[in-house]
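Re: zinc ion structure - here you go.
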Amino acid sequence: MRGIERLHPEVQAMAQELQGLCRENGLPLLITETWRTKEEQDALYAKGRTVPGKIVTNCAYPYSAHCWGVAFDFCRNVRGKEYETADGFFQKVGHLGKEIGLFWGGDFKSFKDMPHFEHPLYMINNSVKTLVIKWGTPEAFKKSWAAVK
Ligand SMILES: [Zn+2]
């Protein structure tokens, strides 16, 4: 799912701020993925495992930040050049995101995920572990969001 209104309120505010910064800097940002449902994560996890294709994620539900609404993905909003990297588009957007406090997937130590941002205060050490311990399930976590708004 791609609507930023599906993100945790703090992450949603950061995504909006990033959209503004990208506009000011002439970077055509498109947010492609935000909250991921169990069905969506299961389908992604199946790729390259139980259905044909390349493996695209190492995270089974609910171990992706997307299952908790604290991460979003982006690409260049230019048809046919969405993931072109030659001009440093992803680094530039990554830099702007880091300036406003997001963790950028291009800084992952092992698998670099350049089109990805997550909130470092919820994804401590890039892991959902703290969320799982505190809330148990993404649904329970989501119920707590009303208090943030
Ligand atoms: Zn992502």
